[in-house]
Amino acid sequence: MTARAMDPEYRSPQSREVPPAREGEFSAVKIGPLEVWPPVVLAPMAGVTNYPFRAICREFGAGLYVSEMITARPLVDGVRKTLRLADFGPDESPRSLQLYGVDPHYVGEAVKRLVGEGKVDHIDMNFGCPVPKVTRRGGGAALPVKRRLLREIVRAAVRGAGAVPVTIKFRMGIDEKIMTFLETGKIAEEEGCAAIGLHARTAAQLYDGEARWGAIGELKAAVTTIPVLGNGDIWEAEDALRMMRSTGCDGVIVGRGCLGRPWLFRDLADVFAGREPQNPPSLGEVFDIMIDHATRLSAWFGERHAMRGFRKHSSWYTKGFHGSSRLRTELMQVTTLEGLRALAATIDRTIPFSPAAMRVPRGKTGGTQKVVLPAGYLDDLDDLTPPEDAEDGGSGG
Predict the structure, then answer these.
(1) Which of 165, 240, 314, 359 is positioned for an S-S bond with 331, CB 3.0–4.6 A?
(2) How much is the pLDDT for 363?
(3) What whole-number distance in Å separates Cα of residue 345 and Cα of residue 341?
(4) Domain 26-272 maps to which CATH number in 3.30.70.3400, 3.40.50.300, 3.30.450.40, 3.20.20.70?
């Protein structure tokens, strides 16, 4: 990897205007007994933030790296696939896990199991998933509107966790008419959460348009005793400085910005230390990272399964490079590590990263939705009945 400072042409106009961090301007975010520096958290993303990906990101920079989401009831029932998702690498510390659940009983039991077996150092609860198959059953981003049920779930998690810190992540609300983020933040604060994170979009927005950072500032003004983390549109390292300065939030959560760009965590470490970030890697250096990533995935999941899942990563890694459309077509045909290495041997390693690709969206992109809820879901917002069949897999929100 190169060690030179980033050429100004690689920085977007808005990032070029961001003054460097001053000594003492930012501090570690405290999540219970954990001190996270720089104040950066990897967002849980289903099918992405497994141990191999977390390990790659961690080697580029410090922070808190959260697992992909696991579901409470299958964990309590001992479902093998769920237990595997809850695994950490032998060298991971701290061990941070995102848990999803809609029933206070199963959430409490799942947390007790995780803590009792010494598996985790931090638990994050997901109340931000906007996936239709989840919201139409009353789960994910739809659940915070049921304020009493939300409180009971959070309370069960915090009590079950004991000294292990619990945080929750959520969206602004269901849509423009049903905003829940301020009340959700206050419930978390009152029930003993160690920190909260807001993705500054509604469930109806999905990942469309720009995140509304102003809502993060509103939440920070309303919740004053625990850290508030901001999530949404951290594409370049300087975006984190802009978000924290404009909202007063205590740290940032990085999701789609690191897809195919794990070196974003290196850049974040640089800007929080007041340094200019380095240039992005060349195509050859990116392929070195890709081979390392695919090798780790194969060791963790088995080569056949790993290489099938790696295709999405291949697309993200190469997006924006000259001639990458043809290259991605070839990558979609790769089924083995040997095939990936053979393809890597044919590329021009000197092709530079394109400045125009710095802010190209990756992962889930545009489009909005009408959020479908269960029939009569909004008739009684104080209903404590857990939604049925809502514990389905989805994104971290």
Answers:
(1) 314
(2) 85
(3) 6
(4) 3.20.20.70
